[in-house]
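Tokens help. Consider this.
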Amino acid sequence: MNPGRLDGPGAVHAMARSVAGAMALAWAMASPAMAQSDRMVPIATPHQAAAITLGTGPLPGGAAPESWHSQYGSVFARNVTIATLTPFLPPAGKATGAAVIVAPGGGFRTLSMNNEGWDVAQALADRGVAAFVLKYRLNQTPPDMAGFERSMAEMFSATAKRPPAPQDPAATYAPQIVDARAAFALVRSRAGAWHVDTDRIGMLGFSAGAMLTMSTALHGQDAKPAFIGNIYGPLSAVAVPADAPPLFVALAADDPFFASAGYGLIDNWRKAGRPVEFHLFEQGGHGFGMYPKPTTSTGWFDSYVRWLGMHGYLKARG
């Protein structure tokens, strides 16, 4: 049984597509300038029957209620105060035993649930890899849409001052790392029912989700992902432990946030003698995810799947 297909995000995904309607593909294929004119439209909170509450408690000081909106033909959540995990399981008999916890991005202010969550998880499940979308707790934003739009416009404006990399990611992202640790613990506790090998669970993150993925791998204590993916996240230098997991990285050379800060993460991983694969696409911008754009960045997922196969995660253990 695949809860992602039946009554959870499968139904949510259909609802999201109906909200966006025929505009979805048009916006996905639009030029960046055109896509930026797509407004945020509030929508009702989707029914998420398959989502499992992680039990990490409410976000301290989280007064604004969780809310959802559509944009770019996709669906986003914000003001998340209760973390959940939604499973997307492979069809019966197709599971390889490998699993991936998927962390959408959104600047820790919102979560791209379609493009960087459900769509990714379903594509992995179709290939025999169990996937679990982590809806982690977020920094609070104005509860009204107008205020939220202003705050996001300021954050993503060309003149906005980019915050420096946190000196202590373990402290900066503490609530989110707790959520990620709980996600790994839940998957391992239900490994038998979900046909998952407890030592073959990885993590894949996008933008802020990539920051969370890296922080989980480096500071997540008992989480210990078997492999990790950083999709258009920062590539700042880090101290790489001797047992660092294999790392897959994808970034567009025209990414406005992270393409001009060097590749210290790649260099450090290589110097530590740990496996790393890096795809630098000529074009794609930021946030391409699963959108079918006319750039080679669209091929990141196929490359990622081949990378999983190279490491043996697309076949069940004999």
